[in-house]
Design a protein that fits this description.
Elements (H helix, E strand, L loop, with lengths): L1 H8 L12 H13 L5 E2 L11 H11 L12 H15 L8 E4 L1 H13 L5 E6 L3 H9 L3 E6 L10 H10 L4 E5 L11 H13 L3 E5 L14 H4 L4 E5 L12 E4 L2 H14 L5 H10 L3 H25 L12 E5 L7 H12 L1 E2 L1 E2 L11 E5 L4 H14 L4
Parallel strand pairs: 1-10, 3-4, 3-5, 5-6, 6-7
Antiparallel strand pairs: 2-8, 7-8, 9-12, 11-12
Bound molecules: pyridoxal-5'-phosphate.
Length: about 400
């Protein structure tokens, strides 16, 4: 009897994924603010700006009409507009039939992993890396295979590392992000081409997370779409277009995957939120506004690159793109969680401990998000400098 009751309350092993520790930092920051303290928020990876005015206006207009389901693959005019974006940004002709609209890139990962992999399949990901990659794979019964990246290879998976991991135990897929989270590093186009070539030569499916494209400062980001028709490209309106809460993204798929993904999306979600799709299409007309926002990030990046070494944090990874700076704090602490907690409580600067992104070496790193304002960046540098005794 008791056993039956207990069984009714048990959750599946696959749902037992770890929490996102940045949430703990956010909660601690909220407590400080509730008590009247002021916190500079550099912990959450999202733009401070709103969606383009064009997107907001389109959504307002649409609200007076009927908001109905759309086709599972997305509104045709949005799919065509996304295809055109590849022409505008990369000079690449893309067939709209290969574009699928998704509920943020997050649902793109679920759809792609379901369509590409069987339970037990092994998928390589970089460490440090975005935690949900491994947690989604695990929840779907796949095995994430972390490949440790280092400064020697600009913190990206190399061809040699991929092939060595594949020889050790066969891989079914590899997922790469450039610009990456949490590191903000980018993979050079030639290295990306080599990696795709090596993967596909071994029958390893290539997935490219291009969510931070458009936010590239060191050199232009290359799309995997130019290098392979078989790669799965995942993207989103969340970062460049400042539309995190709208929950809207897209995938560019090999032709053979479109129908399987359509069937999955029909069953899992019916369609993507219609209002967000309408706003997203209009967002492309707001690129001039988003370029202004990007220039703000560039200025923030400059302030941190120049200011943090003076404040005492001299070691960080190449600050190539996205809006992250991944700083080595090992000169001050072996416990990045404790370091971030003290920095929050004593300096009023919230950042994310690296252990979220790299369980093995993340205790030496802290991620700063520089998507806020320039005055906030100046103040953060001053506060950190003062706190570390350099100000
Ligand atoms: C590297 C990376 N990929 C994907 C996502 C998911 O974003 P969304 O589902 O909003 O598109 C994020 C969010 O922070 C991210 O940093």
């Amino acid at each position: 009897m008791l056993d039956t009751a207990r069984r009714l309350l048990t959750t599946s092993a696959r749902s037992n994924v770890p929490p996102f520790m940045v949430m703990d930092v956010m909660a601690a920051a909220a407590r400080i603010e509730a008590a009247g303290g002021r916190v500079i928020h550099m912990e959450v990876g999202q733009p401070a700006a709103s969606a383009p005015a064009t997107a907001i206006a389109a959504a307002r207009r649409a609200l007076s009409g009927r908001i109905a389901y759309t086709e599972a693959l997305g509104i045709p005019s949005l799919r065509a507009r996304i295809a055109r974006h590849y022409g505008d940004l990369y000079g690449l002709a893309v067939d709209p039939a290969r574009v699928v609209v998704t509920t943020g890139s997050s649902s793109g990962f679920i759809l792609a992993f379901l369509a590409l992999f069987e339970p037990g399949d092994r998928v390589a990901i970089a460490s440090p890396g975005y935690p949900p990659y491994r947690h989604i794979l695990t929840a779907l019964g796949c095995e994430p295979v972390a490949i440790e990246t280092t400064a020697d290879t600009r913190w990206e998976i190399t061809r040699e590392q991929l092939l060595a991991a594949h020889r050790a135990a066969p891989l079914n897929g590899v997922l790469v992000a450039s610009p990456a989270n949490p590191t903000g590093t980018m993979i050079k186009p030639a290295a990306l081409a080599e990696l795709i070539d090596a993967a596909e030569g071994e029958g390893i499916r290539f997935i490219s997370d291009e969510i931070y494209h458009g936010l590239d400062y060191a050199f232009p980001a290359e799309t995997a779409a130019r290098l392979s028709q078989r790669a799965v490209v995942i993207n989103s309106f969340s970062k460049y277009f400042c539309m995190t809460g709208w929950r809207i993204g897209w995938m560019l798929l090999p032709e053979a995957l479109v129908r399987p993904i359509e069937r999955l999306q029909q069953n899992l979600a019916i369609s993507v939120p219609t209002l967000a799709q309408i706003a997203a299409e209009a967002a492309f007309d707001g690129r001039a506004e988003m370029e202004e926002v990007k220039h703000g990030y560039e200025e923030n990046r400059r302030i941190l690159i120049e200011g943090l070494p003076r404040a005492g944090l001299a070691e960080f990874l190449p600050v190539d793109g996205a809006f992250y700076l991944y700083a080595d704090v090992s000169a001050f602490s072996d416990d990045s969680f404790a370091f971030a907690k003290r920095m929050l409580e004593e300096a009023g600067v919230a950042a994310t401990p690296g252990i979220d992104f790299d369980p093995a070496r993340g205790h030496h790193f802290v991620r700063f998000c520089y998507a806020g304002s320039a005055p906030e960046m100046h103040e953060a540098v001053a506060r950190i400098g003062h706190w570390l005794g350099r100000g």
